[in-house]
Amino acid sequence: MSASQDITEAGPEFCEVYAAIHAESFEGSERWSASAFRSFLEMPRTLSLIASQDNEPTGFILARLAGDEAEILTLAVSRTFRRRGVAMALLRALRNRLENLNTTQLFLEVSARNEPAKALYLAADFEKIGTRPRYYADGSDADIMIWMT
Ligand SMILES: CC(C)(COP(=O)(O)OP(=O)(O)OC[C@H]1O[C@@H](n2cnc3c(N)ncnc32)[C@H](O)[C@@H]1OP(=O)(O)O)[C@@H](O)C(=O)NCCC(=O)NCCS
């Protein structure tokens, strides 16, 4: 359950952990390497949170800040720990931090074919505001979603 998740800010030292969880979660060219994660995690306007349970990483979220807006770049939960509230706990923790930074809008793009993720974001009170046709390598559309503080 989310209550047992420890959520902390994470830096570039977690790039290998992130790549491993991402590889479980995405296919082919959608996967990000450890060096790609390192580059993002070293950027000054990046905010990332890692969840862990009994010191075992269970999932993470990576966001980029720009003015009073933020964008979720990626979110993934280890297969073993899915449907236990990890992603929801990460979203809540991220939004708490964004509110403290006076960020008013949080955007993301999600494949229109990714039913688990779309269900998660709707359950977390995001709204769909648009579509990017054939945005992903597999030809799927991206749904653009927003959450406002
Ligand atoms: C999408 C993902 C992050 C969800 O993580 P999770 O920790 O399992 O999600 P949670 O347990 O916090 O789920 C919260 C709510 O989201 C919805 N949800 C999550 N996964 C779902 C699924 N497979 N089917 C239907 N609804 C789902 C439910 O409403 C769920 O609440 P409930 O369990 O009480 O019904 C996870 O499946 C994942 O890593 N997928 C691969 C990577 C990915 O798609 N990332 C998002 C890209 S934008």
Automatic annotation (TrEMBL):
It catalyses: N-terminal L-alanyl-[ribosomal protein bS18] + acetyl-CoA = N-terminal N(alpha)-acetyl-L-alanyl-[ribosomal protein bS18] + CoA + H(+). The keyword Transferase applies. Its main location: cytoplasm. InterPro entries: AcTrfase_RimI/Ard1, Acyl_CoA_acyltransferase, GNAT_dom, YpeA/RimI_acetyltransf. The keyword ATP-binding does not apply. Residues 5-149 form the N-acetyltransferase domain. Acetylates the N-terminal alanine of ribosomal protein bS18. Belongs to the acetyltransferase family. RimI subfamily. This is [Ribosomal protein bS18]-alanine N-acetyltransferase.
